[in-house]
Amino acid sequence: MPEKTFHIHTIGCQMNVYDADLMANALMAMGYRPVTEPEAADLAIVNTCAIREKAEQKVYSLLGRLAGLKRQRTTMRIAVGGCVAQLAGKRIQRRAPYVDLVFGTRALERLPELVRRLDAGEGPLCDVAGGEGVMEMDGPRQAVVQPRVSRFVTIMQGCDNFCTYCVVPYARGREMSRDPGRIVAEVQDLVADGAREVTLLGQNVNSYGNKEGLCGFAELLRRVAAVEGLERIRFTTSHPKDLSPALIDAFACIDRLCDHIHLPVQSGSDRILARMNRRYGRQTYMDLVTRLRAVRPEIAITSDIIVGFPGETEEDFNQTLDLIKTVGFDGLFAFHYSDRPGTPACRFTPKVTLGVKRRRLEALNELQNAATLARHRSLVGTTVAVLVEGASKRCDQLDPHGGEAIQWTGRTSSNKIVNFSQPSSTEVPPANVGDLCQVRIEAAFAHSLLGVRAPEAVGLKGEACHAA
Ligand code: SF4
Question: Please, which residues have CB within 8 angstroms of residue 234's CB and are 6 or more apart in sequence?
């Protein structure tokens, strides 16, 4: 019997990318082979995200294209997974009857059984059942979607916080953590497979294990940091209300923990933070920043901001701008508010008009872009350690300073993207994917840095950062 093929179209966050690898590994264990185009797939999966506006409509437009392919090849099967699948369930099959399988965020473990049933001629199928307790899930063994050097590891799923604007607690369910032993074993496997860096993922990693009585997040970091051969650890996302003294202490003690934290603040106004149900105030947030910088002065802090939340006044917005200036973020992901069906904030009034939301977002981005560029420029002339992730997208260009071809791309410990060239001199050995290279920064842009490989030895923490 000829080998069957699959294609996964992934939309959304890092957790969805990790889930795509879980699906790919499960299907490969069943004898399926990945293909790069849906035209060649016996099973086409759309791995959906519900965070963006009009998420469900976007999924239907993608499905419409797959329906055209299925009309030409009637043996093709179409499946929808992820957050939109969880939220919409059977509604998807009512609206798109050619969809053979809908599987929710907690049905990933049952994907092989569901696909077997499809192969046996059953369908259409829909599995959006929930789950509780410790997550009994093994991670993907092989990197099919993710880059091999820098891998994601989901440590928990779901959220119990119910911020009033957010669909995650409905789409991903209640918080569930994975057993720390399974997480450490997975990191060991990833390192054996070539990973040098892992990013631990969860909607709120700071509350990892609390509900299940597992070790806390800071202790998990210590156990992961003890894995031989691992160079760097990152994590995301961190709710400020649960950022513990133990985690701040981890930044003081664990050298492999990168110089970066993503700490979503969402607003600089206490009144709006209360309406969002964030359960911290601006002063608490700024105190956390001070304590983090006290133990790790070089730490890069990035954040998320929502502008134009219902009821946000000019004064509230000015407090957000003021917080941005006071904290001095390395980068921001800012969006204007829009209703997510089913969330409490949909009912909140008064709504801010689209024109005002756009104006505020533009002002905020202008402020932050200038700050980000100034931070990048402050690195020009320094030498930083860069973990090489692959060939640079700018590899057809020459470094204007050195005249050498820009070959490689990677990140600093503080999560800044660096494209760099390799000098032709023999003193500097050739770089490879997975190397931690010393790079002298020569130019700064809004979203990246440009440099040339330097011969110096890497410092103890893998982040030599000194003015030359
Ligand atoms: S903590 Fe994050 S994931 Fe959870 S409800 Fe709030 S915004 Fe959504």
Answer: 197, 198, 199, 200, 258, 260, 415
